[in-house]
Design a protein that fits this description.
Layout lengths: L2 H17 L21 H14 L1 E8 L6 E4 L4 E3 L5 H13 L8 E3 L19 E3 H10 L3 H11 L2 H10 L25 E3 H12 L6 H12 L17 E9 L3 E9 L5 E10 L10 H16 L1
Antiparallel strand pairs: 1-2, 1-9, 3-6, 4-5, 7-8, 8-9
Length: about 300
Amino acid sequence: MPAGGRTLAAALAVVALAGGACSADKGEPPALPTLNVPGNSALATTLMELEERHNVMYGIAAYSPTGARTVEWNADDRFAMCSTFKVYAVAALLRLAEREELKLDERVPISEAEIVPNSPVTSYRVGETLTWYSLAQAAIVRSDNTAANLILDRIGGPQTVTDLARTVGDTETRLDRWEPALNEALPGDNRDTSTATALATGYHRLILGNGLAPEYRRMLTGWMRGSVTSGERMRKGLPVGWVAADKTGAGGFGTVNDAGVVWSPTGTSVVLVIFSRSTTGYPIAAPSNTAVAEATTAVLDAMTT
């Protein structure tokens, strides 16, 4: 859309929100980005400028657990999840531990045949064993794909991730494939996708709610706090003193994601999901970490001022 058209669309979106909630037919993408934050015209303009500058489309959901402020931007559009699914997979594993159907200190052999790309922990442990605890930690902290596949195999496959999502109020997330095929991110393919709103709902329940027993919730949150893959994405965009428990993801067509919960220095929490994909249409489009970082800054500024 030409720049003038985008500006007009933003103005219309703001006017519509001033007069009432935006709506769209079920299953159809919204005609305009939806944005629900007091004084939102500046944020609408900023997000459109960022999309144009970085050649991306965002899917964003952010809200305070009290419901005081909410941001939604293409929040019901489907995006490839990529590695953000690992939070659900690990949560399903932890539920097995809760039910005493699995011991986290049980050791799992690591074979050469199981190694897939982007496995920074398991690829160095071929011929050895790792505990389920260590594999879960590797999947979240280092986004290790082989660890994730081993966990998927143990919990019952991709469908179990979809099932787990439903139990935490996420009605849209679906996982269909294994690592690394699930990162294809082919436009229009609903496999291995979610929406920002849905993932925010599920992450909220797992990190801040009752989706896991307290012991396992603290365990999952601790691993997400320890992530080493978010430094140039959400965490780079956080205000000074803020911290995050988040999970990143990246895939084809310039897909770059980051999702989790962030906390201010005073302890105020914000559930934040930022999906993004390239608008160039190239399967090997360069991912833009900066687009996610800058969107993080813009959204949190709007929610805290």
